[in-house]
């Protein structure tokens, strides 16, 4: 009995020791490393080296360093590595960046005088010839480049670059801010995926796609000297882990805070929020071939039933702003300032009235309206990963129930098949309505009769004509007028409801970050102005 | 020996063809068009004409059996294809993720064995004691908690509250501790229960009473005879767990941002990256067959009688 007791005690002691040993070992390891190695090193690094760590669920997605590969240029530009001839400001205005001046007589032939003091990361000078070769390679590699700009040819001489277009483009400066037109040394590399030489304030250093990448200061940067020595970009797919890493101080800046993380993350100490409204828009698309939503009164009644303010405040945790037009207010053609909008507020009573006037009535008393014996029952589809879609659909279901519309919601992993096959009455989606501040491409693929993304089969000859006129516009005013005209038709016909604009919301630790601002275009996350404490 | 090796190789090939054909068919049955995804990822609006061209380019326009046979032919020549998402060879993608998964799997297995074997044996030896009951209770808790929940709790307590470990530690040894703990806690609970029950069953055998009757000391009976006989089921269990772990632990790898095979597989599925999905399936098949072969070899080592029975 005594032996048994002793043995039991020993076993307990061994395991207690094992666990505490593990704990103290890991504690030593962590504390020890923190106090004797990594922490002082980190502190010393912080004291000598200015380092910031950026974390995101999906913004740092480039698979390689070739800006002409897919959308990779977008990510590469955001690390402060790549730059274009122009850069967008907060109002989506294109500001000359690698160019000193530019001129055009007919919006077809554009002459750019490039800066004379810019060198690529390999020390080679940026000349007009280098930019010409760069754009030629991009056009050859990326199909989208050909779709974006009707380029006929280039002429290069010294620092003068001429771009000749096959049709007029009044907003070429804005179009050139698309990071696909990142300037790089097209003759400096043989394997662009592995190494490409850019002009930006930071140079790629370490790279582990989808996990982590490091950029270091470009000592020979032509512009304002970069204020960080190093920046680390970490991809953390799990939103909870990303939130904890920020709260824990492992991440200094969270790029685009996940909506679900907002309630938790806003309680973090030393938190600063950087937010601005961009071109991303939350929308409902109607299937214009579906008998159930053929009547514009039904589509407008649904628009009246969306409580945009509540969506913004409660469902999206203030990461969106309400919308009654198509584009954000900040644009000349944005909001509803130059158009006549029928829906300007949440108004279920008006919705009921509209439906009654259109001949819908609840004849059998089941709470659902009918017309010609057909119940007003709709099917909405959306992507299951979009949590706000699930919440909105629940709210919408109850709102529509009140006005006598039955809404069935199907969330799926991928809606592309169902959308393409027209297996919906309405969809919940999110689109960027022209990332460079120019919505021309968006208009063409969303609203034009045969647009590649016109899945609801909306067709209005006047919209098609106005969209075609955008190609011939000789001034920005003319172009804005056409865009406003299209907006008016879309609001009248209601094939879509653009109910909110997404903010680009980042948070940063005010104890480690001295200055950070991400522009609403989402193109620039790190630049020379970003500063660590 | 040669005949046995040939037989194993034959069964390997049959299994490989079976599972890869099945996964090929399932991938194609699932919704989502890889050509459309490829175009969208490359920034091109997917018109019907372009989709057709892309399908031709990716070889997706041919009938599924033809695509499968072509893929199998390439595989036999050592070519696993190119990832649709990253444009890199699939083999390169797998090889890059493999060391991370190996490190995580082997570390978790070692921690599991180091803790579960002594605790399982002790629980059996002191069956019904407060110690046994305490361990059983702890086991129930960890077996019933999902791994993602354990991961988040560990992260919250050890990283956020106590600041002992980093939340994101991919690539560092310190960063290995949390994912290993998250995986091991569940495994340890399973193993303790299994080991305890195997040892208890062994204790009821007549030969144990015989050994005691012959005056063999209790320690020798326990550590030499009983433990040796419990090794076979433990080896089987270890083999199964190791197979699962080497396939990449999707949830833990995703939460801790561990760049292993599980994370690679999930991303490939999300993207409909068929070549990577198929490469992953081949790897899983290979691992399970390898682990099975090793287990069978260990059975023979542990119990030579099997060899004689087998002829």
UniProtKB/TrEMBL annotation, chain B:
Its main location: membrane. It is a multi-pass membrane protein. Residues 98-299 form the ABC transmembrane type-1 domain. Pfam families: BPD_transp_1, BPD_transp_1_N. The keyword Acyltransferase does not apply. The chain crosses the membrane at residues 12-30, 102-122, 134-156, 176-192, 234-256, 280-302. Keywords: Cell membrane, Ion transport, Membrane, Nickel, Nickel transport, Transmembrane, Transmembrane helix, Transport. It is found in: Cell membrane. Signal peptide: none annotated. It comes from the Bacteria. The complex is composed of two ATP-binding proteins (NikD and NikE), two transmembrane proteins (NikB and NikC) and a solute-binding protein (NikA). Belongs to the binding-protein-dependent transport system permease family. This is Nickel import system permease protein NikB.
